[in-house]
Amino acid sequence: MHTYDPFAHYYDADFRDYTEDVPFYRELARRSNGPILELMCGTGRVLIPLVESGYTVTGVDISPAMLAIARKHLEDAGIHATLLEGDVRRVDLPPQTFGLAFVAVNSFMHLESVRDQIETLETARRALTRRGTLVLDLFNPDPTDIAREDNRLVLDRSYILNGRRVQKFIAIDSDAATQTSHVTYLYDETDEEGHLQRRTMRFVMRWFYRYEIEHLLARTGFVVRAVYGTYDLDEYATGSPRMIVVAAPAK
């Protein structure tokens, strides 16, 4: 069982209302020439609205539980997409097929090692057409905020899931030397009778700086076309909420 499988239903609930980036991807899809590829697609949060807009989309994820939820969402909406269970570092995709490939909000940060990052970018490079576009949507690291992360437990959100009250707590411990954040999610689930069940998930996120990601892209045959700080395409700056990197295969 993949690490994320027991938490797939929580992940889906955590992000079901996050739509801030969807218009951005719809516009990219409109401009793209060819099918669309989403790497690390999760439960289909971005993929599904793109399919609903009439685009041909393939999603790849390593978690069968995540993909099962995505398939259910697609079925409920009466639409179809190709969903592939696989490791984005080495998944077998048709070469030079996709006009747009992307890794949505922070998912690329689950790749801890340089080797993992390069292999994933090479996967995207092989799958894209010569005029294709790659988008990486990344957390913009603020050293001041990172220095304050000391594993303190904070309530992140609360919602109802399958008739039960869920409270999600987050603790983050970051290390500037390795550019990694050790993240703990605690999900406290309470039923109608007040019985409490706690599930704990731990993982590592690796953050990037602008020229580091540009160097990785250059090593894997890409040319950076733009770096944005928001989904409205504002110029990337120190205080930007996001670091959205748009690249294309080098000629």
Q: Mind explaining what this structure looks like?
A:
It contains 7 helices and 11 strands. The chain is of the alpha/beta class and 251 residues long. The protein has 2 domains: 5-141 and 209-249, Vaccinia Virus protein VP39 (Rossmann fold); 154-206, N-terminal domain of TfIIb, CATH 2.20.25. The strands form 2 sheets. A 7-stranded mixed sheet has the order 3-2-1-4-5-11-10, with helices on both faces. A 4-stranded antiparallel sheet has the order 6-7-8-9, covered by helices on one side.
Number of individual domains = 2
| Spatial order of the strands forming the largest sheet | 3-2-1-4-5-11-10
Shape: globular
Per DSSP E runs of 2 or more residues, the count of β-strands stands at 11
The CATH superfamily of the largest domain appears as Vaccinia Virus protein VP39
- Assign the CATH topology of the largest domain: Rossmann fold
Question: Which bin fits the share of residues in helices?
Answer: 25-40%
Order of helices and strands: HHEHEHEEHEHEEEEHEE
The averaged pLDDT comes out at: 95
The separation of the N and C termini measures: 41 Å
Largest sheet: number of strands, sense, barrel closure: 7 strands, mixed
- Kindly estimate the percentage of residues that lie in beta strands according to DSSP: 35-45%
Oligomer: single chain
Structural class category: alpha/beta
Work out the radius of gyration: 18 Å
| Shape-level CATH architecture of the largest domain | 3-Layer(aba) Sandwich
Low-confidence stretches: none
> What is the CATH class designation of the largest domain?
Alpha Beta
